[in-house]
Amino acid sequence: MTKKAFQSESSQQGKPISKEAYKDTLHKLQVELVKLQQHLIKCNHKILIIFEGRDASGKDGTIKRIVQHSSPRETRVVALGKPSDRDRTSWYFQRYVPYLPAAQELVLFNRSWYNRAGVERVMGFCTADEHEEFLGSVSNFESMLVRSGVQLLKYYLDISKDEQKQRLKDRKTDPLKQWKISSIDDEAIKYWKEYSQARNEMLARTHNPITPWTLVHANDKHLARLNVIKDMLGRIHYTNKDKKLILPDSQIVFACDVSNLENGQLAK
């Protein structure tokens, strides 16, 4: 990890981008996403992308821009609700397995099985033993997916406490964001430190060479979206790739380094 990755929080977001430049770059990247989808359909690939992060970190908006011009037949966004009584007595990963990609499919998880390492852990929705079992088995589960031919990418979007407060406040006043309001929104701020600790433990124990985490400084929504898409396009092979366009800003999107989780890499 370079020294730039450990600069102060205010400088980690890069220079702001104008609306015109954002729209122009997004359009070009979405053209690349269409190329990617054409390639994965032709080659029968299976792609799974996991988006995790604090409440209001921008997962919805990033996913929306990725799938905006994708074929709905081969693209699925998965955002599961509360587990049912049956889910609670089943193998933990069982409720997620039906949503995994088949050949020619791109699947994006807006939160995933990592709920157990975050919300469930902090809010007491799982036991300590269930949490430990999850952290001990999830890497094996994901390795099995990769061996079966699934291309798996994992992104963690991180924002500052002040930014989260403002975004959660905006939800309550914007009539178009009412569907985002959750009963645990206020708990996200109340248990900020607990979520930070849970995040760090999750990253430290589930980051590995086969299914690594990619971290995103997401205080600037526009820059976060563009750079996640660039990073994603850079990691997946497809034909006629515009290599110059898809170079991400390493101050915004960067590889997880578990040895430095406590040294300013992410919001504390």
Structural overview:
There is one protein chain. The protein has 268 residues and is α/β, with parallel strands linked by helices. It has one domain (3-81, 91-260): Rossmann fold (3-Layer(aba) Sandwich). Helices cover 42% and strands 13% of the residues. The protein contains nine helices and six strands; from the N terminus they run H-E-H-E-H-E-H-H-E-H-H-H-E-H-E. It has a six-stranded mixed β-sheet, sandwiched between helices. Strand 2, helix 3 (85-88) and strand 3 (105-110) form a beta-alpha-beta unit. Helix 2 packs across helix 9 (221-235). The radius of gyration is 18 Å and the shape is globular. It starts with 18 loop residues before the first helix and ends in a 13-residue tail after the last strand. Residues 1-12 have low confidence and may be disordered.
In short:
By secondary structure, this protein is of the alpha/beta class.
Spell out the blueprint of helices and strands.
Layout: H1 19-43, E1 46-53, H2 59-67, E2 75-78, H3 85-88, E3 105-110, H4 119-123, H5 128-147, E4 150-158, H6 161-173, H7 185-190, H8 192-206, E5 213-217, H9 221-235, E6 253-255
Parallel strand pairs: 1-3, 1-4, 2-3, 4-5
Antiparallel strand pairs: 5-6
